[in-house]
Amino acid sequence: LEGEERLRLLNYQCNNISRIDNLTRTPNLVYLDFYDNKLHNIDNLDPVSNLRVLMLGKNHLERIDNLEALGKLDVLDLHSNRIRAIENLGCLRELRVLNLAGNQLARLQNLEGLASLTELNVRRNSLAALDGVEGAAKLSRLFASHNRVATLKAVAPLGHLASLRELALEGNPLCEHQGYPAGVLAACHQL
Among 120, 101, 17, which Cα is nearest to 59's? Predict the structure, then answer.
């Protein structure tokens, strides 16, 4: 491609791509979309260090790694993969939005380094508790619907998030208990 070094947006949605490669001539990319492909690994992103948005939803990813060069990343979408653990995100100091919906998460962990994170989507996982979010002090929106949260104790850690303004819990066993909305509001007085 002539002028590819000036590209800022690249969309590779729905292309059966199994490997991220050949990005060395696109250093000015700010938006990269690999939604609905066949990626098993996150690799070869070092050349696109100016990236602000990375869309990797609906692939075959099992791990979060190789993001060290993406210190300017603002949005990371990893929904509908096979990810079991939140890891290797501490290098993403500017990350504001993280979408991990539809994965295989059983715990929220390793969010401490995400000082700018304001939105976290963990819908449709296997979370029984919401502890581990305390490290994301700026979190204002948390979407945790359709998990395994069954008690108010599992929601109590959210009370430490002074910035939390929006919380979605529908589809959790907790929602079947009479009076659960009042209990959640008591635990999360900032809502």
Answer: 17
* Cα–Cα distance, 57 to 81 (Å, whole number): 7
DSSP assignment of 51-92: --EEE--SS--------TT-TT--EEE--SS------S-TT-
Question: Residues 52-99: pLDDT tens digits?
Answer: 999 999 999 999 999 999 999 999 999 999 999 999 999 999 999 999
Neighbours of 158 (CB within 10 A): 22
Closest CA to 62 of 41, 93, 45, 44: 41
86 CA to centre of own chain: 9
pTM over 0.90: yes
Residue 122 and residue 108 in contact, taking contact as beta carbons nearer than 8 Å: yes
What SS3 class is residue 166?
strand
DSSP codes, 98-110 = EE-TTS--S----
Amino acid identity at 108: L
Separation between Cα atoms, residue 40 and residue 69, nearest integer Å: 19
Cα–Cα distance, 35 to 78 (Å, whole number): 9
| Token digits of residue 101 | 């919906």
